[in-house]
Amino acid sequence: MLQVELLDRDVYGPWTYSSNVGFGRRISWLDNQTIPNGHQMTFKQALHIVSTDLILRAVMPGWAMGLTQRLRNIHIASEELEVGMTTLVLCQIIDLSS
Prior knowledge:
Elements: H1 8-23, H2 43-52, H3 54-59, H4 69-97
């Protein structure tokens, strides 16, 4: 199986740049070590899982996402990433409307 080694800067760099430029919010990967209340993993963990298992997530049907621990983690990470991105967008909309 082909494995690609990515450095943190390769995966998280574009997200840091996008959040800073697009949303005016700086994301610190060092501060993202504790799981926030109401969540099952950190934003960094969710981003890592979704980015490394993107193809698997795309080809697996929804009903199969609970069959193994890895698939459950992919499903949880996808939901966590969606919530995180939605929160960023909503915060930006609120900031712009004020």
